[in-house]
Design brief:
Layout: H1 10-33, E1 38-39, E2 47-49, E3 55-56, E4 75-79, E5 84-86, E6 96-100, E7 107-109, E8 111-113, E9 121-126, E10 130-133, E11 147-148, E12 153-156, E13 159-163, E14 167-168, E15 186-188, E16 191-192, E17 198-201, E18 207-212, E19 217-222, E20 308-314, E21 317-324, E22 331-335, E23 338-343, E24 348-350, E25 388-389, H2 395-399, E26 407-413, E27 416-422
Parallel strand pairs: 1-2, 4-6, 5-8, 6-9, 7-10, 16-19, 25-26
Antiparallel strand pairs: 2-3, 9-18, 10-17, 11-14, 12-13, 13-15, 18-19, 20-21, 22-23, 23-24, 26-27
């Protein structure tokens, strides 16, 4: 005899319909998010329950699956040990690794162990500056009979190897095997850096590497500086458009560094130059002006053997401009192809009409060729405090300028001096 039951009413039908609608809503939501169901195992997809019934967030299995939400990586840390790190840990795959230098100090990295998949991406971020060494960088050649310590780097068949077990080299037993990733004594270095021997990764900078399973190497594909400097290492030709801002230290090296296009672009230097600008044998052309500082700087003064122009200062204040040439050199000033002024070690040569509108003091010989007019006959007085030499005859010359002065002047005629009254 079966259980007693009441016949269903319209209320029961309504309740059943509501429950079914809720189930359908849940199925549709799961389909939209890619979560097909809840698993109580530890498999790859869906919401997973651990032994203590804690529900874990959905994850993508390593064999593939439907991605939901942003990409994120299980964060790991690795410490450099004699040039080597291992990025695998208890089969917990990660592409996000914090790297600590050996002894918590700046370090070199030669070998990355623990690649798990072809094409694996590695986001690499150091706590101390880490210098990645290219697997093709020059090193001391492997030598039979040499005693090697852990961390020693050698070159064999154009490939770098790092020692991981101390030993004495023997050709027959422990020489690095070309192409082999490792043996009982050596790891084959496996960091590829396009166009450089090394790549510096600054503190907290993040660079990206990708694993090439064909060659068994990690290739740097983004970020890192070169030759000990921070910044982005861009091995190919790059074009920057729009406004670009470079902060902190920026190093540009190479046989030629071009800034801008000569016909259309302007290169603006907002801050001060930190070093001398050495033009080599090249010219500075089309300059509007040179403006000198009004306070003494930290640069070295021009020496007696230098050729240059220097702002002069007295007590830290501007005091003028110095023109410096080595001893026995000259200054020349030209108008077109004609020399107008020549300043040498023994004379100043003025090769054109000269007008002096203020007091003139000459402390050495003055030689004037061609006609010479001193002052205005109406307004100017000419005072001669020294002796005047007028050729070998003085009467006509002195008589020609009766307004020269009142009183005696001493005139050298021939080889003797005579006092002459000028009235």
């Amino acid at each position: 005899m079966g259980k007693a039951s009441l016949p269903k009413t319209g209320i029961n039908d309504t309740l059943d319909a509501n429950r079914e609608r809720k189930k359908q809503f849940g199925r549709e939501r799961a389909a939209a998010t890619g979560i097909i169901g809840t698993s109580l195992g530890t498999g790859g997809g869906g919401f997973n329950a651990t032994g203590n019934n804690t529900i874990q967030a959905p994850t993508l299995p390593t064999a593939g699956g439907t991605m939901i939400g942003p990409i994120a990586f299980y964060l790991k840390s690795a410490t450099v040990a004699d040039g080597v790190i291992n990025v695998s840990k208890d089969n917990a795959y990660s592409s996000r690794v914090i790297v600590v230098g050996q002894g918590a100090a700046a370090d070199d990295l030669e070998v990355i162990l623990g690649a798990s998949h072809a094409g694996q991406i590695l986001f690499f971020q150091p706590i101390q500056a880490i210098t990645l060494q290219s697997y093709l960088k020059t090193a001391t050649a492997w030598a039979n009979g040499t005693s090697y310590s852990v961390g020693d780097v050698i070159l064999s068949a154009s490939q770098r190897y790092t020692c991981h077990t101390a030993h004495t080299a023997a050709t027959a037993t422990n020489k690095p095997v070309t192409g082999s990733a490792w043996n009982d004594f050596w790891y084959r270095n496996n960091i590829r850096i396009t166009g450089a021997d090394e790549r510096v990764v600054a503190i907290d900078e993040i660079i990206m590497l990708q694993y090439d399973s064909t060659d068994g190497v990690w290739t740097v594909i983004s970020g890192g500086g070169t030759s000990g400097s921070g910044g982005a290492g861009l091995g190919d030709a790059n074009v920057w458009t729009n406004v670009n801002t470079f902060q902190s230290t920026v190093s540009m090296t190479g046989p030629t560094v071009n800034l801008g296009d000569a016909s259309t672009d302007r290169v603006n230097f907002i801050s001060q130059a930190g070093t001398d600008l050495n033009m080599g044998t090249y010219d500075v052309v089309n300059v509007d002006r040179f403006k000198f500082a009004t306070a003494a700087g930290a640069g070295s003064a021009l020496g007696t053997s230098d050729t240059g122009i220097e702002a002069q200062f007295s007590g830290g204040s501007s005091a003028g401009v110095k023109f410096q040439v080595p001893t026995n050199n000259i200054y020349q000033f030209f108008s077109g192809s004609t020399e107008r002024v020549n300043i040498g070690s023994s004379l100043i040569l003025l090769n054109h009409n000269v007008t002096i509108t203020d007091d003139l003091t000459i402390q050495d010989n003055l030689q004037v060729y061609d006609d010479c007019t001193l002052g205005s006959s109406i307004t100017d007085d000419i005072d001669i405090n020294g002796r005047v030499e007028i050729g070998n005859s003085y009467t006509a010359s002195v008589a020609s300028y009766p307004s020269l002065a009142l009183g005696y002047i001493t005139v050298k005629v021939g080889g003797s001096y005579r006092n002459i009254w000028v009235s």
